[in-house]
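Subject: sequence -> structure tokens, single chain

Hey, anyone have a minute? Need the predicted structure for the following. Not urgent.
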Amino acid sequence: MTMKFLLERSLADVADTYLAGHEITAFDTGAMTREAFADGIRAADAFGFRWQLPFPIDRAALSGAPRLAYVHKSGAGLENERVIDLEALHDFGILFGNNAGVNADAVAEHALMLSLMALRPLSLAQMTAARDGHWGATPQAIAAETMPAPRMLRGRTLGILGMGRIGVAIAERMRAMGVRRILGYRRSVFPPDAAALAEQAALDEVLSEADLLILCLPIDDSTRGLLNRDRIDRMRPGVTLVNVGRGAVIDEAALHGALTSGHIRAAGLDVLAQEPSDSPLMRLPNVVVTPHTGGTAIEVQKAQIPAALEALADFANRRMPPRLMRPATLSSPSLRAAWLKTA
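Reply:
Had a minute. Here:
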């Protein structure tokens, strides 16, 4: 059966290899209006996009798409109110997939880099001294700059909040670097690859035991503000914190207070609650900030479009697309891709 696909142009331009025999309509994100979207989506069986549209794909927009059965976003991040209404998709029986995990290795490497930079702080003063020929900075000299003294990664008790693909990739690298113990927190049962690397632990246990804590959680109603003042107070004194997930998981005012008091020794942050940001956290000497570039690498960029088109091709061939964000939709009475229905 021929299906109709509405695809963002960078996907549509190379889609023929993956979706041969199906009808493909391209759109340009910057020029897309609500009216044009309504016209294009009305007859579409599937919709694929890479970049955030200038308007949300909400219940009203989806109500005019009676055939739409699958939506795919090329990329991993998703903030519901800014991109697409996941509840509306579920209610209409429309499956939603993305490229979660495609950037897992890049984010894991970035988490390792931030961990090392926070544990072994490299200040502008040190770099300037080296260029000027002054060598051999001592821990005492570094401390005089109000920077934390260097510490080793080997022997740490690592806590990972979020043991999905990224959390597992982080654990693999950290195990090779000689951490003593890895505790992982996940809201559901550990997959086998996570269980082989980390001990599954309750959130409070991870917070109280870890002296290096890495966050790689998505943002949703259950994780927004998860690390509030109370939970930060319960963290192990002197912990080093790294966040490569979403900034809104942390109460930034409470984090600032803990970093200022020394309760949290140092932090490496790739994400902040508001981006771009002028957060006071960026001006603390014991904080390293990168501009949400953890998943950025040439290899990742090359993989994004093929990963999206392979998932769309699975749908076109009546196979289960990978990386569904709401698998519960598969058992919904309103599921439109009825051939994929599960009990």
